[in-house]
Amino acid sequence: MEGSSIAKKPGKLLNLGLHEQQDELEQKLENGFAIVLSRMGNLHEREAHDQLLQAVADAKLVSYDLSEFIAFQMYEVVIGGLLYGVLSDPVNASKYYDALTLVANGSWFCALCNVNMVLFELYPRLHNEARQQILFFFRESIRVNVPKIDNVLINLIRNANDGGDFKDSCKMLTGVVGLLNENYPWLSNLKPKASLIPVILIVFSRNVSWIARNWEET
């Protein structure tokens, strides 16, 4: 078959089977990243940030009647593209996260929605490197005190505990434990009714029993 000789483009986020097509969400984030790169280029940090902010501002000039809608679309594209950079490029992840912080400008709803979509739709197929970069995202988000980040962290814990590969689950949950240990003051300052702590207790107590059973069987 003629099409079978065409090499499939490898995804930077997902482990795809031989006949699987690139995921629509991954493609969307990757397209946003291409726009981010076209704006940032090899500019110095401040100039690159100005270019990203200008990209959102320019969208408002396209149409007066639809300016707010178009501007939000571009904002969403840039946010998604920067998140893709954080997850796919560990070397430059800090640069993309700093730019994400600037563009978000204190309003993290769009960024956290994108992270939730990655967790719900892509997590089981993510490369190990991308999974480690998710931990990087949470580490940085806790550092800058992103609102509601604890609610999104719950989704990471639940996805890591979804009954997939045991070693992969333990590796991610161990990473989460390290993250929480590093940020104990943040954890202890969560609101009393925050859902994160009960979820942590349930999930990690369950995994302790799994590890104990696995140890006895070996």
| Alpha-carbon Rg, integer | 19 Å
SS-derived structural category: mainly alpha
Instruction: Tell me the number of helical segments per DSSP (H or I, 4 or more residues long).
Output: 10
* Mean of all residue-level pLDDT scores: 84
CA distance, first residue to last residue? 48 Å
The parts where pLDDT drops under 50 for at least 5 residues are 1-7
% residues in beta strands? under 5%
- Succession of helices and strands: HHHHHHHHHH
Protein name: SOSS complex subunit A homolog
Pfam family, one: Ints3_N
Domain Integrator complex subunit 3 N-terminal: 74-208
How does this structure look, described?
The chain has 218 residues and is mainly alpha-helical. The chain folds into 2 domains: 104 residues, no CATH class; 70 residues, no CATH class. 70% of the residues lie in helices and 0% in strands. The longest helix has 22 residues.
